[in-house]
Amino acid sequence: MHVTRELLAYYEQDREHDRLREGHGRLEFWRAQDVLRRRLPPPPARVLDVGGGTGVHAEWLSADGYDVELLDPVPLHVERAAALAGVRARQGDARSLPAADASVDAVLLLGPLYHLAERADRVRALAEARRVVRPGGLVAAATINRYAGIHETVGRGSYLRDDERRAAHAAAADGIMFSPRRGFTAYFHHPEEVPGEFADAGLPEVAQYGLEGAFWLMGDVGDWLDDPERRALLLDAQRSVESVPSLLGVSGHLLTVAHRPR
């Protein structure tokens, strides 16, 4: 993906490393892990983790026995990920993958589509994933839901700020989210528009999973995540409703998966 000066400046602050490892972000992490463990081919399948950040998913994938290569456009992320056991990491662009046709068993795009504001670029990234995955292989892409900005700003209290409130409602209107707090632009999807982007990339049949459901909006969700017994119940509760169409847009993030046609 194209890395703007603003985007690079944000990620070079190293905020991404702990985003899914601490606090409320753990719900997104554990739910993505849960879905992927059910959908990925068994290890030692080769997985290309595109836009994989500092390796939060590559780390557990490698520990599970997968052959993992991580690509990310941010040098700091690549440096951190390369230090993980069993993970190969290098810089790369989701729209032009440095991999041969049909050379991997699964491609993960757990971040790049957030940063591609133009639909043509998102379809190009998905088409590249289709190109490098073998026939029958898996492509999984995460998207941020259209109304996540409104939910998040209310939840953390920043909806009281005029600039944050305007940005959240602008994203709800057209998907373009400029975060005053983060300083860069992202794209927020309607759940129903994602299958069309997959289809235009040559991936016509998809399954969709709401990652956090409504539970990320609970004020005490951190307490549930801290308690292993309650965490297991919370993850099981969301798993039971993860693909209910009317609930997909409540999640902060959506995971869409497809197999490359044979």
Layout of SSEs?
Elements: H1 5-11, H2 16-19, H3 25-39, E1 46-50, H4 56-63, E2 67-72, H5 75-82, E3 87-91, E4 104-109, H6 119-132, E5 133-145, H7 148-156, H8 162-174, E6 176-178, E7 185-189, H9 194-200, E8 206-210, H10 221-226, H11 228-241, E9 253-259
The end-to-end distance, rounded to whole angstroms, is: 28 Å
Approximately what portion of the residues adopt beta-strand conformation?
15-25%
List the helices and strands in order: HHHEHEHEEHEHHEEHEHHE
Radius of gyration: 17 Å
In percent, how helical is the residue content?
Answer: 40-55%
Report the structural category: alpha/beta
User: Major sheet: size, sense and barrel closure?
Assistant: 9 strands, mixed
Mean pLDDT over all positions:
95
Uncertain spans: none
Shape: globular
Number of strands: 9
The number of helical segments is 11
Highlighted features:
alpha/beta, 11 helices, 9 strands
Overview of this protein structure:
- With 262 residues, this protein is of the alpha/beta class.
- Strands 1, 2, 3, 4, 5, 6, 7, 8 and 9 form a 9-stranded mixed β-sheet that branches.
- A hairpin with a 6-residue loop joins strand 6 and strand 7.
- The longest helix is centred in the N-terminal third of the chain and has 15 residues.
- The radius of gyration is 17 Å and the shape is globular.
